[in-house]
Amino acid sequence: MDSFPDPQRYETMQYHRCGRSGLMLPALALGLWHNFGGVDDFEQARAVLRQGFDLGITHFDLANNYGPPPGSAEETMGRVLKWDLASYRDELIISSKAGWAMWPGPYGDWGSRKYLVASLDQSLKRMGLEYVDIYYHHRPDPETPLAETMGALDHLVRSGKALYAGISSYGPDLTREAAHLMRDLGTPLVIHQPSYSMFNRGVEEGLLDVLADEGMGCIAFCPLAQGLLTSRYLQGIPADSRAAKAHGFLQADTITEDRLRVLHALNDIAARRDQTLAQLALAWVLRQPAVTTALIGASRPEQLQENVRCLRNATFSADELAAIDQALAA
Ligand SMILES: NC(=O)c1ccc[n+]([C@@H]2O[C@H](COP(=O)([O-])OP(=O)(O)OC[C@H]3O[C@@H](n4cnc5c(N)ncnc54)[C@H](OP(=O)(O)O)[C@@H]3O)[C@@H](O)[C@H]2O)c1
């Protein structure tokens, strides 16, 4: 990169309002779930983060447990913040979460006030930050009263350790309940982080309507189905891909002949639109008015360069949408 960061970055990226809040988020955000842990090459991780910011990706998404080992992705983010991005803190939206198992015993998992408050303190320390921009409850907890979990989010925003509150992977009814509780507390829930891709369309069955109704934004995670909806696996499983890694969450046995047939059909549709498969998949997620941001992962800078170009052709004709539905149903 010649001059860092690119002075044109805010012209080339699009920014969308997050629900009815004052927060603007980039159309594409970068998550640190894979490829930024202690097991990964730090200089490569750093190059991807720098590339993201250079392309106008102002939002980086973390969680306490991202690694492996758990916590190490936040340490990587902390180092890059310190070395490369310290003077840009006010141009960045950094999020973290708690809700999955993080430390032993009864206080390091799920949704108690004890866990959420302690975990955010740990996350801030690992990242060397005074506050995160968004703090999420990572998944619903069937045992802890929702009012306690939401009370903890409200408390953390009021304490200044988080600027905005969010939830992840909550269903439509629980989301509505959480939104009402938080509104009553005076700290609106501004964002929901659900899984959404061509291969996982559950949010279309009610959640997106609730989010629009409640004025919450939506940041869709795994929009590329962990890399399936890219050219990565069209010719086999590359040795450096997520599906080939022992600690990757993408299981190689999900790449079946049937799935490959669908991927090739989608790839043909992408080619007719002069796009790559990844660009098609991202534009497709972003076509939903309720979706604020597609939250992608990346293992190399070139993937980000390719992916942000989805914004050059982000509209679909009815025929194209029907062709995609047909390819997915085959
Ligand atoms: N809230 C939650 O419960 C939850 C759960 C999961 C994820 N998330 C968030 O969502 C973020 C994204 O998840 P994800 O990484 O699974 O998202 P994804 O965007 O669906 O998949 C990312 C992977 O796709 C591959 N890829 C990306 N662009 C590519 C391109 N142009 N060409 C070829 N391959 C490409 C890379 O795989 P290779 O590594 O093989 O190169 C990359 O690591 C996470 O980091 C996290 O922040 C949240």
Features:
38% helix; two-stranded antiparallel sheet; 330 residues; 8-stranded parallel β-barrel; binds NADP nicotinamide-adenine-dinucleotide phosphate; alpha/beta
Protein described:
38% of the residues lie in helices and 14% in strands. With 330 residues, the chain is of the alpha/beta class. It has a single domain (9-329), classed as Alpha-Beta Barrel (TIM Barrel), CATH 3.20.20.100. Strands 3-4-5-6-7-8-9-10 form an 8-stranded parallel beta barrel, surrounded by 6 helices. The protein has a two-stranded antiparallel ribbon with strand order 1-2. α2 packs across α3 (72-85) and α6 (172-185) runs parallel beside α7. The N and C termini lie far apart (43 Å). The chain binds NADP nicotinamide-adenine-dinucleotide phosphate. NADP nicotinamide-adenine-dinucleotide phosphate (NAP) binds next to β10 and α10. Residues 31-35, 61, 138, 168-169, 193, 221-227, 230-232, 241-242, 278, 295-299, 303, 306-307 line the site of NADP nicotinamide-adenine-dinucleotide phosphate.
Please name the fourth-level CATH homologous superfamily: NADP-dependent oxidoreductase domain
Runs in which pLDDT lies below 50 for 5 or more consecutive residues are: none
Kindly report the spatial arrangement of strands forming the biggest sheet.
3-4-5-6-7-8-9-10
Number of helices: 11
CATH classification, class level: Alpha Beta
The count of strands amounts to 10
Shape: globular
Ligands (ions, cofactors included): NADP nicotinamide-adenine-dinucleotide phosphate
Record the SSE blueprint.
Blueprint: H1 9-12, E1 15-17, E2 24-26, E3 28-31, H2 42-54, E4 59-61, H3 72-85, E5 93-98, H4 113-127, E6 132-137, H5 146-158, E7 162-168, H6 172-185, E8 189-193, H7 207-214, E9 217-221, H8 257-272, H9 277-286, E10 293-296, H10 301-308, H11 318-329
Helix pairs in contact: 2-3, 4-5, 5-6, 6-7, 8-11
The site of NADP nicotinamide-adenine-dinucleotide phosphate has 31 residues, from strand 10 and helix 10.
